[in-house]
Amino acid sequence: APVPPPARHLFSDPAEVEALRGNLLAWYDRCKRDLPWRTLAATEPDADRRGYAVWVSEIMLQQTQVATVIDYYNRWMQKWPTLQALAQASLEEVNELWAGLGYYSRGKRLQEAASKVVSELAGRMPRRAEDLQKLLPGVGRYTAGAIASISYGQATGVVDGNVIRVLCRLRCIGADSSSQAVIDRLWDMANVLVDRSRPGDFNQALMELGATVCVPKAPLCRECPVKQHCQAWHRKLFGNTPPVPDVEDCGVGDCPLCPPATEPWESSLGVTNFPRKAGKKPPRAMRTATCVLERRGCHGALEYLIVQRPSSGLLAGLWEFPSLPLAQDLQEEKEREELADHLQAWMGRHVAAKGLQFIGEVIHIFSHIHQTYVVYSLHLDGDVTLDPALSPSRWVTEDEFHASAVSTAMKKV
User: Fold this and answer.
1) Are residues 60 and 195 in the same domain?
2) Residue numbers of the domain that contains 65
């Protein structure tokens, strides 16, 4: 049977829990950042509009910094102020507004979920976290908890990257914080801690603490409103736990939440000993040949050919210059030949490999891919007839290109 964690890792003292809640909420009331989605959530009287406003912000904030999201969020809410308006939008419109924000499937699922709410749920957002997660595409456990607590007052906890860091430091949890066993325990803690009368504010306060004070490196511990409850802070001040543990302390090597014996506390790191994660796999390397095909349009301006990517997979539905994945070890001459053959099959006319002008290489890092684009250009005289059975394509000016749903990587190209 699994070994249960000792009480010192948990929040088992009701008086301590109450004090932590009070201290954190008082700090949040004084120090919270002024963010547009918080203003909407606090001032919008209609529950569904409030839920939609929080939902959009939480999806955008996944894997993306607040400073980057603010402008996108304001433009999104101006264009689609209600989920009914979003349900009527096209994927092309969504991708155009989302361009540059990354992780493009988020916008697609948001639009699909809005359409489902309108067509299948009578335009009414689910109110409880369990139903939000079950019924809305792209809404996971964290997003569901955030919407339900902030918009509808459900007393449910949330666990995101900031909350993981705060809780692991508060309770010296040094086991792999990405493991399911630790994540489950953190959710239990979050549900114990959440303030019953102000669940939305409490959850935002916990996340705000992780984002502004209990940061990954160089945390501002002396400014922390809950440092007196933080075991990592006490350990930094007073050193290691005594050699003979208390009854409630961990045994040797059998606690599921302690750091492994091979990775003991490192004094120089202090509270940043926590959390600990398993080592990330390095991103896989990929090479892609990309050709910027250009021509003179009917008004004399240069135009560029862009094609649409498939509706699923990486960068689904976005537009790009004609591209071809390459083997890693190809010589430049062979790369040119493969790209020329690809363009020739696509355009139905001969393309000479020597006619492709090498421009340079562009490196773009996705979360799991180290992508190198080998960029060529080719000027075409006259019109080109493209096979309609292949990907959708169109000619665009430079301004039209930047207004289209193109990725940051293609803008670099």
Assistant:
1) yes
2) 7-273
